[in-house]
Records
---
Amino acid sequence: MEDKPGNVSIEQERFQLRRLEISDKKKGFIELLQQLTVCESVSDKDFEERYQELAKHGDEHVICVIEDRHGGKIVASGSVFIEKKFIRNCGKVGHIEDVVVDSSIRGMQLGKKIVGFLTDHACSMGCYKVILDCSLENKPFYEKCGYKQKEVQMVKYFI
Amino acid sequence: MEDKPGNVSIEQERFQLRRLEISDKKKGFIELLQQLTVCESVSDKDFEERYQELAKHGDEHVICVIEDRHGGKIVASGSVFIEKKFIRNCGKVGHIEDVVVDSSIRGMQLGKKIVGFLTDHACSMGCYKVILDCSLENKPFYEKCGYKQKEVQMVKYFI
């Protein structure tokens, strides 16, 4: 569904983009992540501990979500963290991770909103670039978000 | 040059792998990074500030170097930082960045030692995987280090 003039205000009212809050666990945040990859259910205690650990990083590690006010569910999410380097005049790089949109609600440009928010955040933090890894299948989506392929991602699993 | 039994002790004496120290700026650390990418000269003040910022992260952001005791120069370096997630049972992922070996001293397996150290560190920190981005040209090197290609890296530059 394209954003049309008549839809904008309705959509803005329905979909709220904001930072992750502790209460989002009850709004289906973990179930949303389960659509992305292996994500066992997390206890309230473990969730709160990890939430507080990430909160210590302040603007250097941000998780954003979109809440669908029709039903009060979290329907999209993504994260970005800021890496500090010595190269590029002690520059910074934004790393986008774990972008996901609820499979039942795709085609509403919610993924683009998430990536746009995370990209803008990296820019506002003074990063000289922002990077992410994706499957070849998702490459066209990120190209629509203004990204270009550069390198290849290599991985080593421990478990 | 392959590691041969007779060379090991001599090499171990010559090449010392350790964490970055503030005094490494005087040992050519920035000049080494200049072989990797754009890296303007950094003032002592800026270097120390960034060093201290990174030090705050403790074991969650480690830069290692190899010093060549013949001449007291830094001849190899690489970094790894630990990202905390909610997925994978509140798992962690290691991100390896900025691996570089002095062009005058390649073929001594120093790159492999750097990647091995950073990979082991990510493992010891409880990461379920470690990832990095590289050019297609460098892919065979990382395959020798036990890595496999998985996804593609996308980038957006701000400057």
---
Amino acid sequence: MFEKGAKSGGDLESAQAKNKALEEAGAIVPTSFEGLEPAIKIAFQKLVEDGVILPTQEIVPPSVPEDLSSAIKSGKVRAPTHIVSTICDDRGEEPTYAGVAMSTIIEKDFGVGDVISLLWFKRSLPRYCTKFIEMCILLCADHGPCVSGAHNTIVTSRAGKDLVSCLVSGLLTIGPRFGGAIDDAARYFKDANDRKLSPYEFVESMKGKGIRVPGIGHRIKSRDNRDKRVELLQQYARSHFPSVKYMEYAVIVETYTLSKASNLVLNVDGCIGSLFLDLLASCAMFSQQEIDEIIEIGYLNGLFVLARSIGLIGHTFDQRRLKQPLYRHPWEDVLYSKYV
Amino acid sequence: MFEKGAKSGGDLESAQAKNKALEEAGAIVPTSFEGLEPAIKIAFQKLVEDGVILPTQEIVPPSVPEDLSSAIKSGKVRAPTHIVSTICDDRGEEPTYAGVAMSTIIEKDFGVGDVISLLWFKRSLPRYCTKFIEMCILLCADHGPCVSGAHNTIVTSRAGKDLVSCLVSGLLTIGPRFGGAIDDAARYFKDANDRKLSPYEFVESMKGKGIRVPGIGHRIKSRDNRDKRVELLQQYARSHFPSVKYMEYAVIVETYTLSKASNLVLNVDGCIGSLFLDLLASCAMFSQQEIDEIIEIGYLNGLFVLARSIGLIGHTFDQRRLKQPLYRHPWEDVLYSKYV
Amino acid sequence: MFEKGAKSGGDLESAQAKNKALEEAGAIVPTSFEGLEPAIKIAFQKLVEDGVILPTQEIVPPSVPEDLSSAIKSGKVRAPTHIVSTICDDRGEEPTYAGVAMSTIIEKDFGVGDVISLLWFKRSLPRYCTKFIEMCILLCADHGPCVSGAHNTIVTSRAGKDLVSCLVSGLLTIGPRFGGAIDDAARYFKDANDRKLSPYEFVESMKGKGIRVPGIGHRIKSRDNRDKRVELLQQYARSHFPSVKYMEYAVIVETYTLSKASNLVLNVDGCIGSLFLDLLASCAMFSQQEIDEIIEIGYLNGLFVLARSIGLIGHTFDQRRLKQPLYRHPWEDVLYSKYV
Amino acid sequence: MFEKGAKSGGDLESAQAKNKALEEAGAIVPTSFEGLEPAIKIAFQKLVEDGVILPTQEIVPPSVPEDLSSAIKSGKVRAPTHIVSTICDDRGEEPTYAGVAMSTIIEKDFGVGDVISLLWFKRSLPRYCTKFIEMCILLCADHGPCVSGAHNTIVTSRAGKDLVSCLVSGLLTIGPRFGGAIDDAARYFKDANDRKLSPYEFVESMKGKGIRVPGIGHRIKSRDNRDKRVELLQQYARSHFPSVKYMEYAVIVETYTLSKASNLVLNVDGCIGSLFLDLLASCAMFSQQEIDEIIEIGYLNGLFVLARSIGLIGHTFDQRRLKQPLYRHPWEDVLYSKYV
């Protein structure tokens, strides 16, 4: 509709000439940017008058919606939250675990057990507890390449997969038959002790239900060849725990089972399971209801899962270092049966 | 401040009596609910006049924030979306796959291949394509209990875990060394054919890089004992595909490799890989760029993963039916080495 | 000790000359290879006689152990197998599914449902059954990006992970609250029908236990706006199944629940669940005990898992195609609470 | 054929009477157990002579195959092992980690870092190293509920799944975009320092390749508001590490980047990454080749995965404690697009 003014004098002159020519040809030519709007109005009205176009009703343009975050800030809108979370807040300058800043954790010389205490139990347990948690992790970190978890991790590592896939493939075998003994020991010992069952009543009622007492029995160890790890844990607990009533209960159960067979000793699983109950009960930081919830949710299984992850990651690295090829299970080891 | 009017005449009289008594004692007593507000005002002004209370500045009460969903509906607020999704819309009366309603899928007698076509490729491929996709699924559904995937699934099932954990533990072994041959065959055949390499150039350049040609070679099959599955697939493609140029390329590559050794036949992986390229190229529904993207993203791996899931789920059920106990790999099969 | 005979005459003469010289110098010189052993014996006895060396007791060399595979073949050793498997045999020229060769599967134009039938049920179900299995897969293949499974898959895909990790991350959400309704519907309908409970007794006893009847109820659908998919499935079953007694039971339960509220219709989950019972009962290929085992093991969950894998793989590809960046859940959507 | 001698005299007499009667009736009656075999022979020959039975050729009975484990023990058979493993031996009275018995680990008061040292590095690193490993675990244990890993774990926990499934669903998001910064920082700093690149050369060459320098940059922290955690780690390393050359290199890189923008500080990832290099180089327990292998295999990723497992397990417990229902992503947050 109009020729924009240009930089050089020559160009300007040329523009003026063009505008003039357009005007003479009947065009409406504004001479400045400000003249554009009135020129459009004049052109529009002329077209309406000439009957070229029919005016329609004015539409009120929709107001531009406000951005959500500014609307929330100004208090105009209340957006519901879909997630609740309580263990770690990452919104500030540095994350906090149950309210404790990460730099405080370094400054105070916290250990792995202390961080587990904060993120799982939402409180800072005394050091004798967090040290015991670390001991459990050490003892459960690995149990050789033949158990289900390590085996699957090794197979996946040999398939050339990434670390997480290898770890995960092994973790998925942890459950009722592999890794579940500590949890079970804690559950049964707690129930039996709280119901004040005598060792005889406890063991025989388990037998009646066809359930082996979890935490009792060892392939090699026996009355005269005790498991040193059990002795060390018991020794630690006796010198550091305010009370060890659940462990004592496990010990008198062991006395009874040993009277039946010499290898029915309290094993590491049973020792950890019963001592964890003592940890929860003795520190006086949990209500009875909270302890029940912890046992029901399965925190001890969490300890086993975390601990064994160390071993499974180790097996992944080991196979990679050894440059092992794709594993194929030998045909000779499989009974191909059609009749089952 | 006033005694509320009560139901019975006797109560009303009693209320009037009480009000009268209060008034006489100096209380301001409204005689109706409507009189409450002016009475409060009178009481307030009297207390101010008497200097009992000091009036403070009026506070404008904060407006109650609006609920997010109504604010979005009314167009006041624009909430940014954090997720984009294009394959399935579940907001209406029934979900749609790439725009096709589920009941239409049943009515039109769609097969599994058609649904894969909609959810993966976002278009309805012709039936000769979706039928070929189904054939690939049949052929890759299982390969016995000894391969990595089935083995891990069997171990996890024997650990007493749920179906998803068993399936997943096996799936995680799928990758470069297990299940990757179809994808690799498609990639290398496409690259070689598109670059117009002669079979000699292709095979020898692979050899030069130390890479075995994927899709070529079989443990048992040979020039004089062809794989029937390959023959059936080729036969299907020749009668149903508009063109089979990639398959033809694979066949002349095979002719060259057979001249080197009699077992270097085109195997099922190579056959599926090359025919899938023909499927994409021949149906004229994908741009060249889209085909490249499909191969790069790894759709063929998706086919293998989906297909093999049928077998892995089958192995899970099989072990459960057989009531197999926890698997432990035999010690004798492990070389415990310290010196590596 | 001796100079080996050489090729040319000149060399031979030269060797003889050297041997002669050695003999004269006191060496024991054998004149042929056969003479080597006696020469060693003479030399040894001479050294013993001279007291240069002291003879020690003869050691019987250990016999070289036989290789395991040849020992098994010759019947000398019986190696126990550690794994039993029944669904697929991969030892021959081509794998067989429940005894059916893969090329037969292609030749006979089997579908995905037929292969599932072989690998899961170990028998070739009639086509009306395998077609119904395929219909279930179509209907359960996806349900949009907002459900737990698809959401986790999308998040993992946006973290740049491989296909299997994305799929698996989503599959792991399938369980009691997500995807479990079909299985539950089958279990409860079977139990109620087999115990000959009236719809009133069934629904009210569920209510008494505080359990919603699975398979009944819809967000949108109602008495006057039936779900077309349910109608199509019922229509298919009525024309193809020999009997539909479980479906009929579900329908009379629906009649009762509709008398309580108009949206308590039989939904797709309930329809599939009850019809799957009819499939098992009507084909006369399973004993009552086998049907109970199938329901207990959770084959219907397997169908859902397999079907939804199609959607989860589709979502993985979708996000990759869209080149979506790392997902981070918005802070504003989280209630950070310390007091729980 | 004969009546066995019995205990009492009366019985014996009675047996003799019976035998006599049998003999008289024509039966061949041995008078002792030893007489049984010749009696059978006589009876057989008599029947042959009488033509009652026809003698057939003697069959050599197949020798009963020996059991594999006894055949291996006796050295007759050599079974190849299919798995090699070096980190943990579980065959003795108690498992050993890289040769160290578990009870020794308790007795010597080892920490989590020491066990990681044994199972991952196959050697007992000095305490300043294992303490540093523990510090890394503390700092990486969690980063709130909004990051990919925690988010997926929360969603899976709210689907009512078991602990392992929840943990795993979150772990699977760890990879190039989430959790990979420490590893990347170590790789790039090592390469740049070993190639003696000046900070200018290093940073600008990264910029040229379009790669952000990993380990540099923070959302909030800046030149005048340093990250306390970085300061604490550096302080620890300066007082305990024999040398900190990689950290010093990272610091001069930071000096250069700070000259470009004030928030381009060395962050926690970069600090851990460079200090881990110093750990490996300074303890003089690894060859150069071993260090390269450790970085290539991705041990630092292992540290992150293990550490973050603590947080993911914590989030699982948290959601369970809060009894959160099934998560469904809000429709409003999704852009359903058809045109991509």
